[in-house]
Amino acid sequence: MRPQLLEIQNFLAFGDARVDLSGLRGLVLLSGEHRGTDVAADSNGAGKSALIDAICWSLYGKMARPRHRAEDVVRRGAGADTLVRFIFEDAHGRHVEIRRYRKHGKFKDGLHLEIDGADARGSSTAETQKRIDALVGLDHDTFVGSVLYTQHPLRGRFAELADDQKKELLESILGVEVLSRARDLAKKDLRANEASCARVDARVQSLTEQVRWLERQRDEHAARASTWATEHAARRAHLDTQLDALRAELEAHAHREPALSDLGDARLSDDERSARATLLEADRATRTQDAAYERRLAHARAEESAAAALLRHLREDAGRFEVLGDLCPVCTQSISADARERHLASLEEQLSEQAGRVLAARRAASELTAERQRVLEEAARRREGLEARVAKLTQRAEAVRLARAAHAAWLREGDALRARHTGLLGERDRLEAEENTLGTLAERAEAERATKAAELDDATRERERLEHEGEQLAFWDRGFGPRGLKSYLLDSVLPLLNERARHYGELLTGGALAIQFSTVTEKDGDLEDRFAIQITHRSGVDSYALLSGGERQRCNLIINLALQDLVASRAARPLPLAIYDEAFEGLDRTGVEAAVRVLAEAARSKDLVLVVTHQDSLRDLFAHEVRVVCDRGRSTVETVS
């Protein structure tokens, strides 16, 4: 990259400035001057570093100084329309023009890139920036850390960077940051591989358990199927035995059919019912006749009783006549003998009549009783005959009923035997129709086990593939890691870095300062990867922090020059630019002269070396000078010589 032109509008302290860099070669002094009576400084704050920031901002959209906001680049008095236009010639001789805008009225925060006058922008600002980085050959951090020596300790003072920052900058210089990205990708793929392995392991474990469970299920179903088959055969044999026994029982039953009575069931029943009805009718007639005799006897006895009572009464009257004599037994009046005789005769006649009536009533009752007895005896004999007939008919009917019941029982027994036979036949049919589903379950379990076993084989092969892939990724993780290729590459540049540091140490300090780069350091008795700088002074000081300000400045120059040489040795094309901002700060006259000699030597291998300083006494040491003038807070580039 050979700078040709730098144009600035409203950037930091600059309003409008134009610096033609095409004619400048070698060691160039960048000085500053204040004009005006209200400034208590010679060149500090004039805008020298702002000019360097303009170059850096045009290339990367960031200044060399860290922790600034994007809008900080806009000149405070203008508030808008910031533009930095930078033109340089690339390694192929092409003119590259970069225009970067901030808060511009027309181009906003745009970024334009042209190569030989043709638009070379990408599809986005980020893509355009990548193209600029490729044209320059360095990214921002590498540019600032190796090409640009600034006043900020975390940029130009490499020794003050943290170990990881030093290592990151060296990786960028060596172009091995791609290894970090490759390691990140390898780590990402390794984590994905580990996650996949975990998933596959879980699947293998799950499938293994499923296969084992299915094997147990298959074996259990097979054992139960065998038991079922044995039990089924035993049930079939037992059923056949029952059927044979039942057939024999049916044949024997057929020969045991009972004979029915010769009398028809209907005639036997009618005769029995008729005989029983006749018996009942005779009983009713006997009872009716006996009741009639009972009434007649009662009437005869009543007449006998009435006649006997009248007879007693008459006898009592006769007795009273005997006792009373000539007195009337009724009125107790005296009666005559004739009347008494007539009355007694009447009583005797009445007594005789009544006694005859009593005897007649008794004879009638006795005759009725005898007649009743004859009738009852006749009825009894008739009833006995009827009862004998009924008993005989009942006996015969009972025999018929018993025969019929026995036949019915025989029929029922036959029906039961045939029903049992039918049931056994049906049971046999059902038994024959039964399928050994347990065998089917065993077959299904085996089929599913085979499927799962195949899946397990696939998962096992997938796990083996992932394990092999994981081993490869782990290899690349280590290979791309600190102890891998990067460590090898860093180790490979140590001889150059140490040789150049020794060379510049001799030139700047006469060998008083010795700087040694290393990638391995000892900690707690163990060696670990760590990019370190060992600084020793002939006075015995071995710590950067304990060096004086001038010695630290010399140390920083040595390291920066060594890094620039490393960049030059590693670059696919030379980077003919170096910028030193206040590189002489803290150096005495002897140190400054030595530093200028070293920078002059560096300038012989570069097209342009810009040195920013406020020490006017150094002007005679430079062939060219670019002067930045600040007048009332507005900076311009006034003089180029």
Write a brief caption for the model.
The chain has 641 residues and is an alpha/beta fold. The chain is built from eleven helices and 14 strands.
Question: Would you write up a description of this structure?
Answer:
There is one protein chain. 25% of the residues are buried. Strands 2-1-4-5-6-7 form a 6-stranded antiparallel sheet, with helices on one face. It has a 6-stranded mixed sheet with strand order 8-11-12-3-13-14, sandwiched between helices. It is α/β, with parallel strands linked by helices and 641 residues long. The mean pLDDT is 82. Helix 5 (177-254) runs antiparallel to helix 8 (437-480), helix 6 (265-324) runs antiparallel to helix 7 and helix 9 (485-509) packs across helix 11 (589-603). Strand 4 and strand 5 form a beta hairpin. Among the domains are: 1-136 and 613-641, P-loop containing nucleotide triphosphate hydrolases (Rossmann fold, 3-Layer(aba) Sandwich), CATH 3.40.50.300; 265-409, Helix Hairpins. It has 11 helices and 14 strands. 60% of the residues lie in helices and 16% in strands.
Output the keywords:
641 residues; alpha/beta; Rossmann fold; Helix Hairpins; six-stranded antiparallel β-sheet; six-stranded mixed β-sheet; 11 helices; 60% helix
